Amino acid sequence: MIDTLAAIVVRPSRDSDVEPMLAIYRWHIRRGIDDGVEDTGTLQPDDLKDRRKNLRNRKLPHLAATVRGEVVGYAYVVIFRKRPAYRFTVKHSIYVHHDHHGQGIGRLLMQALIDACAGSGFKQMIGYIDAENVASLTLHERFGFARVGLLPGVAYRYGKWSDSVMVQRSLGAGVTAPITVNSRLPAA
Ligand SMILES: CC(C)(COP(=O)(O)OP(=O)(O)OC[C@H]1O[C@@H](n2cnc3c(N)ncnc32)[C@H](O)[C@@H]1OP(=O)(O)O)[C@@H](O)C(=O)NCCC(=O)NCCS
Q1: Of 6, 7, 133, 139, which is most buried, counting CB atoms within 10 Å of its CB?
Q2: 28 in ligand 1 pocket by Cβ < 6 Å?
């Protein structure tokens, strides 16, 4: 158990975090509670290293949470869609080690991810959550994500169809502020 929240450190992920991050991811995949994007479980260390490099080059946050130096969770975003019009919108993922659920790690990762995305100039965050994933749905609700869609029967795993809930949150002034030429994100 973690004594205090102060023991949790959230920082940009490193190459040396890849193995523990993959172990966390694979455990959740086996339990079938992932968001359904990559439920084949075939993600390899080099894939994750490449993904981190790509994200870093594009100023997309990829964060790790540690307790006494051990990676206990991670969170990152990708651009929502590849076409340039969507460059201000990101889609996020967040995973906490199963031995450390309910200790405030998800909350700290989510806050850090929101802050990092807002700081990078992104305007909207979008997530897809399995409709039975109460912990994730509640976490997102706590952080002001609105349920903007229900995608019925979009995932099939472990012999059953699952619905996904789409959630969305504005960052900073969201779409109410004009885009300026000073924006840190690339122009379309
Ligand atoms: C969802 C997840 C990231 C939450 O992380 P966590 O570290 O356990 O969450 P925290 O302890 O920081 O709790 C933060 C908030 O989440 C909600 N929450 C967490 N676990 C919950 C549960 N079992 N039931 C209901 N709400 C829960 C609560 O609102 C909680 O805030 P509160 O304690 O002030 O009420 C974690 O359960 C996880 O990794 N799940 C598997 C992977 C996953 O589903 N990722 C999301 C895919 S979209």
Answers
A1: 139
A2: yes
Between the alpha carbon of residue 186 and those of residues 86, 106, 121, 183, the distances in Å are 11, 30, 10, 8
Q: How many Cβ atoms are within 10 Å of 23's Cβ, its own excluded?
A: 11
**Local confidence band at 39 (pLDDT 50, 70, 90 cut-offs):** very low
Closest ligand 1 atom to 141 CA: 29
**Domains with residue ranges and CATH for the chain:** 5-126 (3.40.630.30)
Enumerate helices (H) and strands (E) in the chain, giving the number of each. 4, 7
Distance CA(188)–CA(178), nearest Å, equals 15
Q: How far apart are the C-alpha atoms of 107 and 114, rounded to whole Å?
A: 11
Going from the Cα of 111 to the center of ligand 1, the distance in angstroms, rounded, reads 13
pLDDT tens-digit profile of 103-157?
Answer: 999 999 999 999 999 999 999 999 999 999 999 999 999 999 999 999 999 998 8
Coil, strand or helix at 58: coil
